[in-house]
Amino acid sequence: MSVGAQQGSAGFEPTRARGLAERIGASALGLRLRRDLSAAEARMARSARAQGWAHRYARFLRVTDALVALAAGTLGLLVMNPPPGPAAALVAFILVWPFALGLSGSRDTSVLGIGVDEYRRVISATMQLFALVAVVVVLTDGVLSARLWALVLGTGSAGLLATRSLSRRWLHRQRQSGMYLTPAVVVGEPEDVRYVVRRISAGEGAPYNVLGAILPGGRRGQSLTVDGVRLPVLSSTDDVVRTVATKKAGAVIVAGPVPGGNQYVRELGWNLEEHDAELVLASSLTNVAGPRIHFRPVPGLPLMEVDLPRYSGTKHVVKRCADLVLATAAVIVLAPVLAVLALIVRLDSPGPVLFRQERIGKDGTPFTMFKFRSMATDAEARLAALTEANEGAGVLFKMKDDPRVTRCGAWMRRYSLDELPQFLNVLRGEMSLVGPRPPLAREVGGYERYTHRRMLIKPGITGLWQISGRSDLEWDDAVRLDLYYVENWSLTGDLMILWRTLRAVVSPTGAY
């Protein structure tokens, strides 16, 4: 019995030990799970606080989208008084419209405040929803009133774009005052960091507040000079994660190649997850934009494919049709203004009303560009005497107080009214509404090799150069903007530029 008891005791002890171990293990596992869950909740809370403005802004856009849809639908119902079938379809469209805008990603943080993707997604969601409603109506033997839907879609789309534009202007003002920005650090070699910081500083609506630089071999206390401003060096590339935690950065921007290559970047992304900091990779393709970039889903190897720029084809035919329609409408609507301006030029100083000047167009072809005369008739002859007073950038000649400018020419140039006759050049096919600045022959003679790419498409009445500072731009910046437009233009981008041109005309900068 003692033996049996001993055997039973011996058999019992391992079982009890295993049970105890299992309970202890389960307790430890539960503790780890609770600790991990608490850490995850803490990270989520920090993320929610950091991104609180984005959630509030998106909520505001949801409200304005719903109000615009309701207003457009109500207008359609009141003006057209449709029968029950189309009225029911319209009510369904109004109710679903705001949700479709959300599903399209038009309120995503990544597209808010910068670029044209937000507007493109608004229009795309609207058109896709309308197409779906139209199919349902036709399949159910309903009657689709063209005038009703034209009214609702026209007013609704215009209202959505207007409210988004106003909201974006408000967001830009907040960011210019230091609000609604993501604190970021920039990692990379000094020259790469300088380039990224310059672009962030120059970009309208850029969402980052750069706290400092992280350089290979960098140490705290050092600084990096960017356009005369001392940017603090926060640490070396070996200490990014601790620096992010210390500075409470919300983003790490990798500005170029870093020691450790792809493995370093991959592990950095994993480590940043614990601090709710996003990893942003700055592309070395500095002159390539969204319409030309496509991602190829190769397992284990994310590939970014860049389309070749197209300088002819269907898109350019559509662009030409849009130029003809809009230029014709502009000439008809502005005819009284053109007549008054012509009379003012005639009475202000002796000489012709129109100033004709040879410019270089697409493929280096010269053409005669029209403008209202804003200078004295001997302006070209007096140019050589003013060369030393040139304030222009690069090969451009500009003077803020040019003595050759007439009295009416000063205010016409300020508000770009002297450019209005160029609608005739658009109708003649020599220019486009939007494009690179049309250069003089002497300017083309001073171009560097790649600057000639500006002439691969038609020059424009307006362009990125006009809405980005005009004569205040450095020559390199003006060339960069023109080359960027030449290779990446889109119809949506053209509409954005035309809209911003109206704002630039009302509040001119760099116009003289």
Automatic annotation (TrEMBL):
Residues 319-506 form the Bacterial sugar transferase domain. Coiled coil: none annotated. One of its GO terms (molecular function) is phosphotransferase activity, for other substituted phosphate groups. InterPro entries: Bact_transf (IPR003362), EPS_sugar_tfrase (IPR017475). The keyword Secreted does not apply. It is a multi-pass membrane protein. It is found in: Membrane. GO terms for cellular component: membrane. Keywords: Membrane, Transferase, Transmembrane, Transmembrane helix. The keyword Zinc does not apply. The chain crosses the membrane at residues 60-79, 85-101, 122-140, 146-166, 324-345. It holds the Pfam family Bac_transf. Belongs to the bacterial sugar transferase family. This is Exopolysaccharide biosynthesis polyprenyl glycosylphosphotransferase family protein. It comes from Sinomonas atrocyanea.
